[in-house]
Amino acid sequence: MANITATMVKDLREKTGAGMMDCKKALAATDGDAAKAIDWLREKGISKAEKKAGRVAAEGAVAAYLSDDAKVGVLVEINCETDFAAGNEQFRSLETKIAKHIADTAPADLDALNDSTLDGKKVSELITEATATIGEKISLRRFTRFETDGRLASYIHMGGKIGVLAELSGGEAELGKDIAMQIAAAAPTAVDRSGVDAASLEHEREVLRKQALEEGKPEKIIEKMVDGRINKFYKEVCLVEQIFVKDTEKTVKDVLGGVEVRQFVRYQLGEGIEKKQEDFAAEVAAQMK
Predict the structure, then answer these.
(1) What is the pLDDT of residues 214-248, one digit of tens each?
(2) pLDDT given for residue 49 in this prediction
(3) How is the chain split among helix, strand and coil, in percent rounded to 5?
(4) Pick from 147, 177, 211: which residue ends a domain?
(5) 43 and 89 share a domain?
(6) In Å, how far from its chain's centre is CA 11?
(7) Mean predicted confidence (pLDDT) in 33-43
(8) Cβ neighbours of residue 87 under 8 Å, at least 6 residues apart?
(9) Is residue 167 within 8 Å of 262, Cβ to Cβ?
(10) In the chain, what is the straight-line distance between the N-terminal and C-terminal CA atoms, in Å?
(11) What pLDDT does 75 receive?
(12) The CATH number of the domain where 86 resides is what?
């Protein structure tokens, strides 16, 4: 058994772009032979995957999983680099498998999920393998898991561009679906007024106050104007106060009847990820040099 030194690991890492631990494993598996270690990393798909680690993965899909009794539900976002890869059968299968795995194992966070075992391998290893075989950077970005004594509902829009998971105190499956669709379409930020972020509310008040001043309104009526406009703001951001998208004569509260929406989460694919702007002319020119 060859003595694997830190220098050997460092040199292999520089040549392949693979992680330190993967390089150490490769050298151990090949008795310290650097050339064979490079082949070992390529065969495992690790070297190829690691080289893609710096790419921007802002496409992909949001997927949902609900248990048969609608008591456990998951929303998960997995990213890749292109729409084309997001439609890949292997990508979709992996996402579905991971969503169910989250429902079954209830990991505490992404680190725990990546370190958990699925089909005899760590989830992080499955992601690495998918990156290698699909040919694009795959990134497990976020997930939410709900468990309830009421009813869970989910909705996926446009093949995974938007996803919703909602918890209701009860009601029929059709009601749950309608509420999830409402959240997808109207993008509320809170169930009701008590859930509106205080800082966001104060910011909105300040903006409205300045608008009123710019309009030349007298100081004595500005606060009343702001209060009126804040009520309109609430109707936009609070789920139960929104106009119901399937019947504009009703609010969501009317549709719910006595059923309560306890919580919800809405994912929009790639939100918050800065997408790389491709300069294809420059890319082609670089390849021709």
Answers:
(1) 888 888 899 899 999 999 999 999 999 999 999 99
(2) 58
(3) 50, 20, 30
(4) 147
(5) no
(6) 36
(7) 83
(8) 159
(9) yes
(10) 44
(11) 98
(12) 3.30.479.20
For residues 212 and 170, what is the distance between their CA atoms, to the nearest angstrom?
A: 43
The confidence band for 185, taking pLDDT boundaries of 50, 70 and 90, is very high
What residue type is 64 in one-letter code?
A
Which of 89, 114, 147 is the endpoint of a domain? 147
285 contacts: CB under 8 Å, gap ≥ 6:
none
Among candidate residues 227, 232, 233, 237, the one with its CA nearest the CA of residue 266: 237
Q: What is the distance between the alpha carbons of residues 199 and 190, in angstroms, rounded to a whole number?
A: 14
Find the domain containing 248 and state its range: 194-256
Residue 214 corresponds to which tokens in the numbers above?
């710019």
3-state secondary structure of 87: coil
Q: Please report how the helices 20-29 and 6-16 are oriented relative to each other, as an axis angle in degrees rounded to 10.
A: 110
**Is 267 inside any structural domain?**
no
Does 281 fall in a domain?
A: no
| Contact in structure between 175 and 85 (CB atoms under 8 Å) | no
Whether 236 is covered by a domain: the verdict is: yes
Same domain for 71 and 38: no
Number of domains in the chain: 3
Burial degree of 150 (CB within 10 A; 0-12, 13-18, 19+): middle
CA–CA gap between residue 48 and residue 18 (Å, rounded):
8
Q: What span, in angstroms and rounded, lies between the C-alpha atoms of 282 and 55?
A: 17
